[in-house]
Amino acid sequence: MGLGFTIDTPVKVARFGISSVVSIIEDELIEQMRKFHCRQTGEEYVPIKTGEEDFRAKRITAYLNLVHRIVQRQTEQLRHFPFEPGTEIVKYFELLPDDSPAKKLYAEMMEMKDGSTKESLQKQLRTLIVAGSIDVNIMSKLDKANYAKNGEPLPPEYSDAQAALRGFANSELNSSIIFSAGYNPRLYAYIETFSDFLPDENEAFKKKIILKVSDYRSAITQGKLLAKKGIWVSEFRIESGLNCGGHAFATDGLLLGPILEEFKNNKLSLITELMEICNHALAAKGTKTFSIPPEMRVTVQGGIGTANENKFLLEYYQTDSTGWGSPFLLVPEATNVDEETLQQLATAKKEDYYLSNASPIGIPFNNFRKSASEKQRQARIAKGRPGSPCYKKFLSSNTEFTEIPICTASRQYQDLKIKQLKGRNLPAGLYEKEYDSIVEKDCLCEGLGASALLKAGLEPSHNLTAVAICPGPNLAYFSGIFSLKQMVDHIYGRINLLNSVRRPNMFVNELVLYLDYLKNESGKYMDTVTTQQARYLRTFQTNLMAGIEYYRKLVVEIKQEAASFLEEMKEELNTIEWLLRDIPIPSVEVVK
Hints:
By secondary structure, this protein is an alpha/beta fold.
């Protein structure tokens, strides 16, 4: 969801039992939002300035503690509201799924006439109110080293990701940290230095680890690496490789359905194996070991659009829960989308969402053509000044021209790279292609945080107000601006918010995205390809073929959909297979 869109979502929705995730890598944005919410709630704001030692971690800790206090107060206030129309306590229970025991008890209470029995049920219902979890996220690859004012490098623990981890570990939260974007050895090694991630005498954790993974192999590999340090993974969060918001990881053409099937079939053995490794490491530390396996949740997100899909994922794959992200960008009660961007999203067409190369870290990035940030990027190119001023430097990793890393979206880097390109005297067509690949990189540090500041009525630093936004392609099937209740009702099948654009099953949508991705990747290498690239493309195609065959067999298990919908799904799979076979894949035998 980017840096700013859910930066204070817990303050907006946690009291209603809705869990959300706060990105904690951008300490400047966090400090600005701490100041804002201190003023909103009447708490004293004491600035944590950049000159202070360990200011990044301190800012994060202070902000998370503030959010925790606010949510605690809100939840306690909610518990004391009367059960009357329009109150937050009524909203809490009405948002719950209809098959929830608490919702059933609430419905029973509402049918009763006033009296001692009704009062007793109301008292019981108040005890069932639980706030949603205030979880946090670190994208593991964003771990830039930092420097003192004299230019000397700071110790490794002051890097961006490690400082963010320390900020969370030192907070009062009893929640989870989500690591995404792969394995970071230095960061993972740092986890075990904090006791909150280790089991206490009751074999419980104050803070838990969630790994966002794109396939089973990644889960078991990273799970073992952490288990060897005595760290238990409490949840594997499976995300569609391409049908998701933000950065996209296409893996090797492995599709969501087969991945979920592998988790379903191997979850018990995964728990058993990781517990054995973890206990061995904990015993070596002289720490409490597990007598029984701790909870390990398997959850899924990315491209879910209907209540039927949501139910199928929970029931057939036995997942513990599902995650919905991009549709909530259309819910002002839940996320921070400025008015201009919100209106653009509410009226967007399918073609407005696309997979780009805009991210400076070199990973495909789901983008929005109508964003202010994209318009700004094009305007800078038109003026002959491509690139962005680089103040925050979170994505600075390139040392091609400088000793200290700089960002490939920066004006400094793009100016140097274009000068180098001009010196190569390339043919016009090839020059334009290379030039476009340089200037496509965009500033995400400023753009992904600007919306939160604008919505809060704050002035973004250096007047960089252009908003970047990274919705998943599934948002193309939602048009309009919705209330929190409307979106939750859609998720649980009580209403339908989908627009008139025909929407195939989520698995088919993902498959089409992978087909297009393979087509584009294959086109890059038709003239010059290495053996490794050719094998990758062939493996990718083979995995997609296997995925199509898997879905053909899965159709009979999808009980929630109409027969006509399932027949269309079969026809779509046949068409995709034909298109997939038609993609020219370079042969290993003819590579150069």
